[in-house]
Amino acid sequence: MNRRAFLAAVAGLAPIARATAAPKIPDDPKAIVVEIYRLSAGKNGKYEGSSAFTAPSVRKRWFSRKFLAAVVADERAAKGEVGNIDFDPVTASQDPSVKNLTISDESKSADNAVVRAEFFSFDEKTSTVVRYFFIREGGGWKLDNMTCVAPSDTKWDLRELLKPAK
After folding, report:
1. Element at 94 (helix H, strand E)
2. Do 111 and 138 contact (CB within 8 A), yes or no?
3. What share of the chain is helix, strand, coil (3-state, %, to 5)?
4. Phi, psi of 25 (to 5 degrees)
5. Residues 53, 39: Cα–Cα separation, whole Å
6. Cβ distance 57 to 32 under 8 Å?
7. What is the average pLDDT across 68-83?
8. pLDDT above 80: residue 115
9. Which residues of 40-67 are buried (b: 16+ CB within 10 A; e: fewer)?
10. Cβ-based neighbours of 72, under 8 Å, separated by 6 or more
């Protein structure tokens, strides 16, 4: 291949490289939750690795300042042990299994949004429902709380769990 043909081929690939080089960071609450589950599922889609909830890049990018401060304070207070969050909030479990995941907007205003993630774990007959609460902060959407509302024996609110003991 001569030099001119090579340079033409490389120039033709430049738009493709730009399009795939840096993935766009979603700034929509539902898209953020989709990305959190994608990251948590890992390359094989089996939720065998670390949760996106514990990933520093996810926390920095999508947690509100107050939510991040509460999570970090809980971890520091635990002094190397497990803090008040002794499970993966994304999968609402200690042994992750996510099947038939559906993610939908529950509500959205100019400054607040709630996204619902519903899925089944293992062979359970009752679905798990995790709600993601977002606020507008710093010009983008930031995760400010998570709750689990179903099944009834698994209910939790991360803001409540993160409150320091009195």
Report:
1. none
2. no
3. 35, 25, 35
4. -80, 120
5. 9
6. no
7. 94
8. yes
9. bbeeeeebeeebbbebeebbeebbbeeb
10. none
Which residues is 131 bridged to in the sheet?
116, 147
- Backbone angles phi and psi of 15, in degrees to 5: -60, -35
pTM of the model: 0.83
Tokens linked to 5? 């043909």
In this structure, what token pair is assigned to residue 14?
Answer: 């430049």
Under 8 Å between Cβ of 35 and 26: yes
CB 133 within 8 A of CB 141: no
Instruction: Answer with the residue of higher pLDDT: 67 or 21.
Output: 67
Q: What fold does the segment set 25-161 form as a domain?
A: Nuclear Transport Factor 2; Chain: A, (3.10.450)
| pLDDT of the residue at 152 | 82
Place of tokens 């042990």: 81
- Answer yes or no: is pLDDT of 20 > 70: no
The residue that leads in pLDDT, 165 or 95, is: 95
